[in-house]
Write a structure and sequence with these properties.
Blueprint (H helix, E strand, L loop, with lengths): L5 E5 H15 L3 E5 L1 H5 L3 H8 L4 E4 L2 H9 L6 E3 L8 H8 L2 E4 L2 H8 L7 E7 L13 H9 L4 E8 L11 H11 L6 E2 L3 H6 L4 H4 L2 E4 L24 E13 L4 E2 L5 E2 L4 E6 L16 E4 L2 E6 L7 E4 L5 H4 L6 E7 L5 E2 L1 H7 L4 H6 L7 E4 L4
Parallel strand pairs: 1-19, 2-3, 2-9, 3-4, 4-5, 5-6, 6-7, 7-8
Antiparallel strand pairs: 1-10, 10-13, 10-17, 11-12, 13-16, 14-15, 14-17, 15-16, 17-18
Helix pairs in contact: 1-3, 4-5
This protein binds pyridoxal-5'-phosphate.
The site of pyridoxal-5'-phosphate has 11 residues, from helix 9 and strand 9.
Length: 372
């Protein structure tokens, strides 16, 4: 037998989450964000579940290439636009829409030779202070873009810094509306959190919502609300097995640094999963984990290829040999019990986004269509 670790991508969960997004966004079209190789899930693996999206948002031209090769003919938006003038040729060839967030990108576009004018998403920096033009410049930049023969249509976009907090979009939203009010073009403002915390708000959803994390089943505002509260289904399940056990007596310690000490006799399981697989090393003793669908906790430090679980809350495992028991690091157990990736991320002082994106290439994947 090979090493028992595996990640699963659930097509049915993707479809359910996409339909949940559609219910919240009413009239707007959905750009499914598949940057970072679909948040670590693999664009090829999520495509079946997301192919009914109105469009896709990507970071890199190679991701757009994959989508076109899979047969997707609809809109694909480069969310940060091109990183150099050569990529404009890819945009022309693959019919990509692209963000325009700085004057250099406009200069490149003005020198670009194309027989087909481009659709661009002009980005306003409404307060995030990452990418985009200042609100006061927005109108003049729009006019400059609009005068270029290389530009067919301009859409207007901005991105929120605090969309996961109550009222977190108001200031940026009003700035955007004020400085874009006379400009023609479709609007795109909301990410997952902005959409879920302000559902059916037409001023916010507008023409295009750009959703990522919700499609993959992460909560948009954990720990205030969980993915179940939002009726989102986990798409990625990360599982392995117990490969050995140890019986500890009081005073015995576990793992590097001996950070956990047994206070009484106990049985522990050694799991084939470590930080080199993408399980966070920062998840210390007490991180929730499922063994055969039962909730227990990790003990001691995560090492490169292994981690340790407490088998003492699982007396039923005493009857059988725990070696070979299924371990769910996050997502769904084979028997359906759930451990939210947000919970694990929270224990590791990070976000579901980072855990999803961080699965190592050595972890094999399987696409499944879960039972209802
Ligand atoms: C990643 C990204 C999104 C999606 O964000 P989620 O929080 O995952 O919904 C939306 N817009 C832009 C510009 C992004 O870079």
């Amino acid at each position: 037998m090979t090493r028992p670790i595996k990640a699963f991508v659930d097509t049915k969960a993707l479809k359910a989450n996409l339909s949940c997004v559609r219910h919240k966004s009413a009239q707007s079209q959905v750009l499914s964000v598949v940057k970072a190789n679909a948040y670590g899930h693999g664009i090829e693996r999520v495509f079946e579940g997301l192919k009914s999206s109105d469009g896709f948002g990507v970071l890199e031209v190679c991701e757009a290439h994959v989508l076109r090769d899979l047969g997707f003919r609809g809109p694909i938006v480069l969310l940060e636009g091109v990183f150099g003038p050569r990529e404009l040729e890819d945009c022309s060839r693959l019919q990509l829409w692209h963000a325009v967030h700085c004057s250099e990108q406009i200069d490149w576009l003005s020198r670009h030779k194309t027989h087909k004018a481009h659709r661009v998403f002009l980005k306003m920096n409404s307060g995030m202070n990452r990418l985009g033009f200042k609100p006061a410049q927005f109108k003049s930049v729009w006019s400059r873009l609009n005068a270029l023969p290389q530009v067919e249509e301009i859409s207007l976009m901005t991105h929120f810094s605090d969309a996961d907090l109550p009222g977190g979009v108001q200031l940026q939203q009003s700035l955007f509306e004020h400085h874009a009010q006379d400009l023609i073009g479709e609007r795109s403002l909301a990410n997952s959190a902005a959409l879920f915390l302000n559902p059916l708000d037409n001023a916010l959803s507008q023409d295009w919502v750009r959703v990522g994390i919700a499609l993959y089943g992460g909560s948009v505002n954990y720990p205030s609300q969980t993915s179940s509260d939002w009726d989102l289904k986990p798409v990625m399940s990360f599982r392995s097995k117990v490969i050995a056990t140890q019986d500890l007596k009081a005073g015995d310690t576990v793992g590097y640094g001996s950070t956990f000490t047994a206070t009484q006799p106990m049985k522990i399981g050694i799991v084939a999963c470590g930080y080199a697989d993408g399980y966070p090393r920062s998840a210390s003793t007490g991180t929730p984990i499922l063994v055969n669908g039962h909730l227990t906790q990790t003990l001691g430090r995560v090492s490169m290829d292994m981690l340790t679980v407490d088998l003492s809350p699982l007396p039923q495992l005493g009857q059988i040999d725990p070696v070979g028991a299924e371990v769910t690091l996050w997502g769904a157990a084979q028997t359906g019990e759930r451990l939210d990736i947000d919970v694990v991320a929270h224990h590791a002082k990070t976000l579901a986004y980072e855990l999803m994106c961080g699965l190592a290439t050595r972890v094999p994947f399987e696409v499944i269509d879960s039972p209802d």
